[in-house]
Design brief:
Two copies of one chain form a homodimer. Chain A is mainly alpha-helical. The first copy, chain A, has two domains: 26-91, Winged helix-like DNA-binding domain superfamily/Winged helix DNA-binding domain (Arc Repressor Mutant, subunit A), CATH 1.10.10; 97-254, Four Helix Bundle (Hemerythrin (Met), subunit A) (Up-down Bundle). Helices cover 66% and strands 3% of the residues of chain A. The first copy, chain A, contains ten helices and two strands, in the order αααββααααααα. Chain A has helices at 26-39, 52-59, 63-76, 97-109, 114-135, 138-157, 165-179, 183-200, 208-227, 230-257; strands at 79-82, 88-91. Chain A has a two-stranded antiparallel sheet. In chain A, helix 1 (26-39) crosses helix 3, helix 5 runs antiparallel to helix 10 and helix 6 runs antiparallel to helix 9. The longest helix of chain A is centred in the C-terminal third of the chain and has 28 residues, at 230-257. Chain A is elongated and about 65 Å long. In chain A, 34% of the residues are buried. The interface between A and B is large, with 53 and 51 residues. The first copy, chain A, binds a DNA duplex through residues 23, 25-27, 51-53, 61-65, 67, 81-89.
Chain lengths: 259, 259
DNA sequence: AATGGTATATTGGTAATACAATTTAATAAT
DNA sequence: ATTATTAAATTGTATTACCAATATACCATT
């Protein structure tokens, strides 16, 4: 399903009638069989695949190639492997981890700048907020309110420490994505976060006004979402993201000057 | 860099100060070393890594685990492996392939519907068009015009065949993403395409009006982009995407009725 | 001269076996 | 009841050998 599969191949550039006549490795066959079995639901999350030796029997191969295949499946995020008695290969729920890593490579090697990532994030979160404004239910709104209340409590107890607020901020954005009712937005958002995390929060200036600003922004967004005003939600969110990105950029310059 | 790396670890849920003290497998070390070497530019695209036997010497390990590591790197899209004399592991340029696959798994296992994918695509392409309207250069516009001209030529020569137009359509969208001047949009767009390809085009009704509609839509978008009207470009593009998605959905229902 | 075949050395691909390390569960000892 | 020990299953690693693919250089045929 993933690699050039003769069966489902799309005749895009059908100019050339031939494709590379590469002979498939064993592990390709093993991989696609196991993948298919998982996709077909023959193995569900939590299920244990047969032991390596048994799989060797089944596929009529030796442990070398088989372990290579298992390693690839592990990398794809489909299984996790535990050693020891009652260990083995267990089917796991897919996460955004692999997608994040792939995106990370693209960022690194394609030379995508943080500015580009921030721009993408602004669009993404803007759209997320707009959707949330249309679809958020009462419980979603309450959840957002609770998060803001939590943030306020923190800031009252300790008006100078930004760090405890950052995870709350993160949860706010993710809750919003959840309220948007499209899991794809949430997944992509998480992927973006996992890749800009290190930069964004690290360089925000640790000042009281930042905390106030953050809470104010979030609350305005919440209000727009609650009012069902999707355009306002989008606009507020985009401005918020851009604003905080600018703050982080400036903070980074400051730090670079006097480390 | 990918897996739990003590160095760059982010204190997200800094509630738990400790991370699982799992004894790292050999291949983790091997992986991170090779990955780092590639990231650091010690090996560039096209370069050949040492042969398996030599790598075994370097890492003081046997071929089994080493090959597992190479297989994982291959899966990550960092290297390709060729057999035979003068073969070996060659560093390759990263593509969107892995990200596409990861997204594909998320779609399959998280039960993300095609409707959700289409919604995401509409947002993405809308944003892309809006950006392109702001940033497209003369050469970009000319490229878009050339594609439309090509499409028109096809439709004149053969007014009934939609299929030759679909690749042109695809190129149009990708060119637009290129003109948007943010490689991230292009990468994500490609990722989405690679995952909805099979569905979208397959079920479009093969009627003459569809061809006319397609060309008309593209040209209107091109005009908005050329005029620098980003809001119009976004709106036109979003409507276009939704429209064609609806057509494909209806076509699918038709085909399901009478196969 | 051009083409096609063939040897060869290099390198990845597979197999088989043995042992080490890890982990859980059952058991024994305190 | 708690703790230490043992046993069994399973992955992790090492070694060795051989098979298969392939770029190169050389040779043969036309």
């Amino acid at each position: 399903m993933t690699t050039p599969d003769p069966g489902t191949e799309v005749p895009e550039a059908s100019a050339g009638a031939f494709r590379k006549a590469r002979r498939t490795r064993f592990i390709h066959d093993i991989l696609s069989q196991i993948e298919q079995a998982i996709i077909d639901g023959k193995y569900r999350v939590g299920d244990k695949l047969p032991s390596e030796r048994q799989l060797c029997e089944l596929f009529q191969t030796s442990r070398g190639p088989l372990r290579e295949a298992l390693r690839v499946l592990e990398q794809k995020g489909l299984i996790t492997i535990k050693a020891g008695a009652y260990g083995g290969a267990f089917v796991t729920a897919v996460t955004t981890e692999q997608m994040s890593e792939s995106l990370g490579f693209l960022l690194k090697f394609k030379g995508v700048s943080l500015a580009e990532l921030a721009e993408f994030r602004a669009f993404l979160e803007g759209a997320t907020a707009a959707l949330a404004a249309k679809r958020a239910r009462k419980t979603d709104i309450e959840h957002l309110k609770a998060l803001i209340a939590e943030a306020r409590a923190h800031s009252k107890r300790d008006p100078r420490h930004l760090d405890p607020l950052l995870p709350i901020d993160s949860r706010f954005h993710k809750s919003l994505a959840q309220a948007a009712g499209n899991r794809l937005f949430l997944s992509v958002l998480q992927t973006v976060y996992e890749n800009m995390y290190q930069y964004q929060d690290k360089y925000l200036p640790r000042e009281e006004r930042i905390i106030k600003l953050l809470i104010k922004d979030l609350n305005e967004i919440r209000a727009a979402v609650e009012a069902g005003d999707s355009e306002a939600a989008r606009s507020l969110m985009q401005r918020h993201v851009h604003k905080f990105n600018r703050l982080a950029e400036e903070g980074q310059k400051q730090k670079d000057k006097a480390p």
